[in-house]
Amino acid sequence: xxxxxxxxxxxxxxxxxxxxxxxxxxxxxxxxxxxxxxxxxxxxxxxxxxxxxxxxxxxxxxxxxxxxxxxxxxxxxxxxxxxxxxxxxxxxxxxxxxxxxxxxxxxxxxxxxxxxxxxxxxxxxxxxxxxxxxxxxxxxxxxxxxxxxxxxxxxxxxxxxxxxxxxxxxxxxxxxxxxxxxxxxxxxxxxxxxxxxxxxxxxxxxxxxxxxxxxxxxxxxxxxxxxxxxxxxxxxxxxxxxxxxxxxxxxxxxxx
Length: 256
Prior knowledge:
Radius of gyration: 19 Å
Distance between the termini: 31 Å
Number of domains: 2
Helix content: over 70%
Largest sheet: none
Number of strands: 0
Structural class: mainly alpha
Strand content: under 5%
Shape: globular
Number of helices: 11
């Protein structure tokens, strides 16, 4: 059992990671990464209103936001509440992984995988697009879990299974997904393997369908309205990392 000190420390570190990932997602959404990659990746954070660099002390997750009353420390313009929300979300994610998986090279890699998937989700929510570079990042981060798994065939089956499912859905329902969704689902299948990819697919399709219906009803739009699917794949991936084996055991007990 992981100690409370480690979990709290993981939560704090996760919030700093959340600040980075959310800022990265915004830079992708604004097209800054595509236009000036190195500058966008390594430049200091700036206020979107006055464009002045932000004091490092004002970048402390959550605390700085509330001390500054949600405003820029230089021009006083309002800061999006999604900054502290994303920081808390990433902190909670890091604490969950530490609690369930302990602290190791594997759990850190898994957190970075999940964090990148959430980052992709934010970009998809804002732009209905998925950056290829972030999909490649997930593929690169999957190398270590695949190595530990010791059965690369299983990972390749997971890749092929999700790729095939999404291609079939696209053929039957043209325009239901974008090419980015297919790429993301495929690399998620690669890192998860065949059995867990089934869990991820089920979670993603069910949550996506329910959310799509609710969105159409609330916004009074057609059920054919396109919604970003990356968030549902990310949810499936995170749940599988945390509870995938337990879900599979539950299924096996129902069958056998």
